[in-house]
C-alpha cells in the first residue's frame, strides 16, 4: 500500500517536472523564433529627399534594397521645408538636398554626423511644356511669347531649382518681362504639375522630372545654358539623431560610388564631380 502511494506521488511529481520542462522549452522556442524573425526583418533607412529626386530615388532604392536588403523609405519636399522639419525633430537618417546651402545649415546647427555636406550629384535646369501647349515648338523664346500666359516656377526661397530659375531669368534679361506671368509653386514637383495640368503653358523644372517616362511622354523640354544659372550642387548629410548612422553612411557611400555616379545621367542628373 505504501509502495503504491509512493509510486503515485512519484508519477505526479515526474509529470509536473515534465510539464515544467515542456513549458520552458516552448518559451525558449517561441523566444528564439521571435529573435530570428526580428533578425530577418529588413532594415529600414528613412531619407528626406529633395522633390527633384522623386523620379530617381525609387529606382535607386530598389537597386540598393536588392543588393543589401535595406529598405529605403523616402520623404519628398522642397529642400527648405525638409530642413525645417529635420530641425524640428523629424526622425530621418539621411538628407538628400538639391543644394549645398540647406545641408550646411544643418551642419552649422550641429545636427549632422558629417562635418560638411557631401556632393552626390549636379542638377540640370530645363523648360518643359506639354506637347499640346501653345508654346510648341518649344524654345526659350516661348518665355516671352504672347501665347504663353503662365510660367510655372518653384519658390526660390524654398527650392534650389526655383532659385536657379530666378537666376537664369535674370541672366537672360527676362525677369521684368515675365514677372506678371509667373505662377509660383512650393517645390519643383508641384511646378511640373502646374504645367502638366494646363494651369501653366510652360514650367521651369529639373531634368530629372522632365526626362522621367511620364513627363517625356506628355511633353518636351529644352535645356537652359549651364552658364545662365549657378551650379546646382546637390549635397547630402547623415543626421546625428539617426539610429542607423552606419547604414545611412553606407547608402551615401554607395550613392557616390563610381558605378552609381556613372548611371546618374540616365536619370537627368550629372555626376557630382
Provide a descriptive summary of the structure in words:
The protein is an alpha/beta fold and 273 residues long. It folds into 2 domains: 44-122 and 231-267, D-Maltodextrin-Binding Protein, domain 2; 124-228, 3-Layer(aba) Sandwich (D-Maltodextrin-Binding Protein, domain 2). It is 44% helix and 20% strand. The chain has 11 helices and 10 strands. The protein has helices at 2-40, 57-68, 79-87, 101-108, 160-171, 175-178, 188-197, 207-210, 213-218, 245-255, 258-263, and strands at residues 44-50, 71-77, 94-96, 118-123, 125-130, 151-154, 182-185, 202-206, 219-223, 232-238. Helix 2 links the parallel strand 1 (44-50) and strand 2. Helix 3 packs parallel to helix 4 (101-108). The chain is globular. Residues 1-19 and 21-40 have low confidence and may be disordered.
Give the key terms.
273 residues, alpha/beta, D-Maltodextrin-Binding Protein, domain 2, 2 domains, 5-stranded mixed beta sheet, 20% strand, globular
CATH class annotation of the largest domain: Alpha Beta
Helix/strand class: alpha/beta
Provide the CATH superfamily of the largest domain. Periplasmic binding protein-like II
Overall mean pLDDT stands at 89
The major β-sheet equals: 5 strands, mixed
Quickly count the helices: 11
What is the helix content? 40-55%
Principal-axis shape? globular
End-to-end C-alpha gap: 94 Å
**What is the number of domains?**
2
CATH-assigned fold name of the largest domain: D-Maltodextrin-Binding Protein, domain 2
Number of strands: 10
Low-confidence stretches: 1-19, 21-40
What is the strand content? 15-25%
- Cα Rg: 28 Å
CATH architecture of the largest domain: 3-Layer(aba) Sandwich
Biggest sheet: strand arrangement: 2-1-3-10-4
Instruction: List SSEs in N-to-C order.
Output: HEHEHEHEEEHHEHEHHEEHH
Amino acid at each position: 500500500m505504501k509502495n503504491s502511494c509512493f509510486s503515485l506521488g512519484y508519477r505526479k511529481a515526474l509529470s509536473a517536472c515534465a510539464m515544467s520542462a515542456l513549458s520552458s522549452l516552448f518559451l525558449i522556442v517561441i523566444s528564439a523564433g521571435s529573435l530570428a524573425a526580428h533578425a530577418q526583418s529588413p532594415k529600414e533607412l528613412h531619407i528626406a529627399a529633395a522633390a527633384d529626386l522623386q523620379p530617381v530615388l525609387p529606382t535607386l532604392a530598389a537597386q540598393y534594397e536588392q543588393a543589401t536588403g535595406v529598405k529605403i523609405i523616402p520623404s519628398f519636399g522642397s529642400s527648405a521645408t525638409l530642413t525645417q522639419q529635420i530641425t524640428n525633430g523629424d526622425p530621418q537618417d539621411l538628407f538628400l538636398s538639391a543644394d549645398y546651402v540647406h545641408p550646411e545649415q544643418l551642419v552649422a546647427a550641429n545636427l549632422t554626423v558629417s562635418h560638411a555636406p557631401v556632393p552626390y550629384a549636379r542638377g540640370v535646369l530645363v523648360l518643359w511644356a506639354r506637347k499640346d501647349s501653345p508654346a510648341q515648338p518649344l524654345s526659350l523664346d516661348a518665355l516671352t511669347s504672347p501665347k504663353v500666359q503662365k510660367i510655372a516656377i518653384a519658390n526660390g526661397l524654398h527650392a534650389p531649382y526655383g532659385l536657379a530659375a530666378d537666376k537664369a531669368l535674370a541672366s537672360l534679361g527676362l525677369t521684368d518681362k515675365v514677372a506678371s506671368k509667373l505662377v509660383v509653386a512650393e517645390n519643383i514637383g508641384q511646378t511640373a504639375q502646374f504645367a502638366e495640368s494646363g494651369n501653366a503653358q510652360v514650367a521651369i523644372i529639373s531634368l530629372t522630372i522632365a526626362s522621367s517616362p511620364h513627363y517625356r511622354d506628355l511633353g518636351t523640354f529644352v535645356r537652359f545654358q549651364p552658364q545662365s544659372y549657378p551650379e546646382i550642387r546637390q549635397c547630402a548629410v547623415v543626421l546625428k539623431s539617426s539610429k542607423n548612422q552606419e547604414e545611412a553612411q553606407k547608402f551615401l557611400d554607395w550613392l557616390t560610388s563610381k558605378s552609381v555616379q556613372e548611371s546618374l545621367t540616365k536619370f537627368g542628373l550629372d555626376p557630382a564631380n
